[in-house]
Amino acid sequence: MLNNIDNNSNNLALNSQLVQQESLNSILGTSTANRNSNTNNVDSNFLIDSSDISNRALQMYEHELDVKKFTELATSDPENTSHNELVEELFSKGIVDVFEDSTIAALSTNKSLLDDLGL
Fold first, then answer.
1. What's the angle, vertex CA 55, arms to CA 42 and CA 69, rounded to 5?
2. What angle (nearest 5°) sits at the alpha carbon of residue 21, between those of residues 45 and 2?
């Protein structure tokens, strides 16, 4: 299995890799000497706006949290009706139920609301 392996074939493989790297560097416009001697110069074409990445990452994280929260709510115990008690407590404090017929009728005849909505 190791019959035809010697230093010469290793040198050919290494040389081939160096040739490929140099051809890639020539396409990119950089050389190995330039890259190694001048590491502080950054090509402005390769700069990335990290704030865009951070904002997108934050949005993805918040979305993931929302999905987890609503999944927990959807798969929660159907026998648990504590949310009904919370709603009743809000109504007793004077919060208006927007789905009551009288509330919907009042909103549908509210002239300033309709004007604001452009209806």
1. 145
2. 150
DSSP state string for 7-73: HHHHHHHHHHHHHHHHHHHHHHT--HHHHHH--S---GGG---HHHHHHHHHHHHHHHHHHHHHHHH
User: Rounded to 5 degrees, what are φ and ψ at 6?
Assistant: -150, 180
11-45 pLDDT, tens digit each? 556 567 777 777 777 777 655 555 444 455 555 56
Look up the pTM and report it: 0.28
User: Using CA atoms, how far apart are residues 71 and 22, in angstroms rounded to an integer?
Assistant: 53
Q: Using CA atoms, how far apart are residues 113 and 100, in angstroms rounded to an integer?
A: 18
How many domains is the chain partitioned into structurally? 2
Domain with 98, as residue range(s), is 83-119
63 within some domain? no
**86 pLDDT above the threshold of 80:** yes
